[in-house]
Amino acid sequence: MEKIIMYPGESGKETMNWKDVQGQHITAYERRVLVLGSGGREHALAWKLAQGEGALVYIAPGNAGTAQVGTNVNIKLSDFESIKEICLKQNIDLVIVGPEQPLVDGIVDFFKNDEALKAVKIIGPDKRGAQLEGSKAFAKDFMEKYDIPTAKCFKVSKDNLEEGYKFLESVSSPYVLKADGLAAGKGVLILDDLQEAKGELGKMLDGKFGAASATVVIEEFLKGIEVSVFVLTDGEHYVLLPEAKDYKRIGDGDQGLNTGGMGAVSPVPFCTSEFLNRVEDRIVKPTLKGLKAEGIDYKGFIFLGLMNDDGNPYVIEYNVRMGDPETEAVMTRIEGDFVDMLFACADGRLNEVHYAKSEKTAVTVMLVSGGYPEAYQKGKKMDIGPLKDIVAFHAGTAFDADGNIITSGGRVIAVTAHGDSIEEARKTAYREVEKIHFEGVNFRHDIGLDLMNIR
Ligand code: AMP
Ligand code: GLY
Questions:
Q1: Which of 81, 89, 166, 277 is spaced 20 to 30 A from 26 at the CA atom?
Q2: Cβ 187 under 6 angstroms from ligand 2
């Protein structure tokens, strides 16, 4: 049977199993990029990569939004062999890994060790580099060794539980307990009461977060305001991407449960050039120096979760990928050829790259499913738009059998608006948010409000 390959933008609805496109050669674009992931972050990356001269973009597995800017390929991120196959069949030049799990699982090592994939570039750290996010204990040891400002900590396993209790007694409330390994963003507990902290420490070591909490890092509580700073490095050189603030709690006024992120603002008013210079001198440069000294060849994103304490930056955590929903704000402020920037990164030529940041402020509001971040509803029909003056990045969306867009995840769609001020961008974002409907829809009403009077 003859298959019709639809080019990006033709219908906006194509979703193909990779087997359907085997052997077909698409020549519309010179550069071919594969983005791995299926969230708002990946839609924003794919959207940016497809802009202008851009690239022919494939997204695996993607969502209903990524299908508007590229071709979705239905493969699992744990299936490295199928990822390899699509790279070879579609002559992919460059792979961008969205989420952390494949990096921690060694997808970059897999690419580097496979003769057939030698010509395919990949953006992301290898398994050792990914430990910066994959193991909090590794990250803390690294920061200690290279003198990078962070909270004091103590590492506990079942063998030294008594010492762990003593450390808790020696610091003041609130108490911060972190599962060493990846725990789907849920592995951090912050507790006011010492007895409760001791109890939770025991439960974590007993497997509250599975193997991820066999080791627990107890940290001193840092005060200040959080900010996400994004670095793209080729191991030698680096570029600072626009920074952003994330809103993690489900409710207005930072109330309620933690989520994957309910919105973002970029730029962040308190991130002055003086503060960012400190971030570069005290954190970015020593981090890159440390990676080199450890023999870790790091080509990819480093997302610094920072605390700004009175103008001084401290690392709360390293992530080895871009943030979500920060990327949905950040990508819209990068002016210039992002595809070029990533190729330069892969080739170790980031020093040749100069790009501009838009002067505009981006405000991103995330629309989520009813019930999220606890058990949530799925499969709800969506009525979107028509929308204007904003970009809507899809996260948990899919097509039903009739081609209608339905909800398929907790975080559903992110609306990014721009303005000369946070106030202006907020106005546009919230005006358009009101035009997206699905049963149970929820969003925060206060994204950016806290930043409006900070200078
Ligand atoms: P993490 O998964 O490490 O980003 O932690 C989740 C959230 O917990 C962070 O975004 C902070 O809001 C908070 N947090 C983590 N570590 C600390 C700390 N040492 N002091 C204060 N807040 C923290
Ligand atoms: N927005 C936080 C994260 O991506 O981890």
A1: 81
A2: no
Pocket test for ligand 2, best of 103, 230, 319, 331 (most atoms within 8 A of CB): 319
- CATH code of the domain made up of 15-123: 3.40.50.20
- The predicted-structure confidence for 146-183, as pLDDT tens digits, reads as follows 999 999 999 999 889 899 999 999 999 999 999 999 98
Buried b or exposed e, range 120-158, using 16+ CB within 10 angstroms: bbbbbbbbbbbbbbbbbbbbbebbeebebbbbebbbbee
Half-sphere exposure of 164 (CA within 13 A, CB side): 25
Burial of 53 (0-12, 13-18, 19+ CB in 10 A): exposed
Nearest CA to 441 out of 417, 399, 406 is that of 406
Report the nearest atom of ligand 1 relative to the CA of 178: 3
Q: Which atom of ligand 2 lies at the shortest distance from residue 261's CA?
A: 1
User: Checking DSSP bridges between strand 71-73 and strand 411-419, what pairing results, if any?
Assistant: unpaired
Distance CA 274, CA 289 (A): 22
The single residue listed with the structure tokens 């007993």 is: 206
Cα–Cα nearest to 139, from 198, 49, 79, 219: 219
Helix axes 127-134, 136-145, angle to 10 degrees: 100
Pick the range with the lowest mean pLDDT from 107-111, 235-239, 278-282, 334-338: 334-338
Q: Is the pTM of this model over 0.90?
A: yes
Q: Which sequence spans correspond to the domains of the chain?
A: 15-123, 152-219
Taking the centre of ligand 2 as the mean of its atom positions, its distance from the CA of residue 433, in whole angstroms, is 22
Q: Looking at the domain that runs over 152-219, which CATH code has it been given?
A: 3.30.1490.20
User: Which residue has its alpha carbon closest to ligand 2 atom 2?
Assistant: 323
**Pocket lining for ligand 1, CB < 6 angstroms:** 151, 176, 178, 188, 219, 221-222, 226, 248, 305, 316-317
Which amino acid, 223?
A: K
Q: What is the pLDDT of residue 29?
A: 54
Question: Of all atoms in ligand 1, which is nearest to the CA of residue 150?
Answer: 19
Residue of the nearest CA to atom 19 in ligand 1?
221
**Which residue has the CA at smallest separation from atom 12 of ligand 1?**
226
- Mutation pick for ligand 2 pocket among 303, 318, 321 (CB with most ligand atoms within 8 Å): 303
Token pair for residue 363? Answer: 């405000």
Degrees, nearest 5: CA angle 408-414-417: 160
